[in-house]
Here is the input.
Amino acid sequence: MWGLGRRASRPARQVDTPGAVLMFSPMFAALKSQMAALPVNGLPLTIPEELWSKIEPEQRERCINAQRVLGAFAGDRDLDLDDLAERLDSEPEDVLGGLHVLDAMALVTTEESDDGPRFHLRALPDEHVRFVGPNGRTQWLFVARPLDPPNVASESLN
Here is the structure.
């Protein structure tokens, strides 16, 4: 049977008739990961061109890796490091740089499990808002769309 990556993280759904069976789950995850490498505007993590042009090449590479890792979640919210590495066809050490960027942007959280670190996707990048601060300098505010509604006490609502 064909396989993408080093090991199967869960059974794939079989589509077709007995004999010739297509396994769409691994194929879809790999395709979605590749498509997530560069968003529609061609830049990762919703970074606008004006800001991207000022980022050092090393940091640009980290942002591109972070976009790939974000795409590797492919509809899942919780994955361990090995699953992410498998989906990206990379070594776990190579995935950590992208995860570090996503963690710094508060898009993922990390927890320990028996199988090593486990990552929870908690938000998706939405936009970067340009504004001029009180000092007259251009600044950027990163906006992320949370995937879970916030817990707000009823007494604090209007």
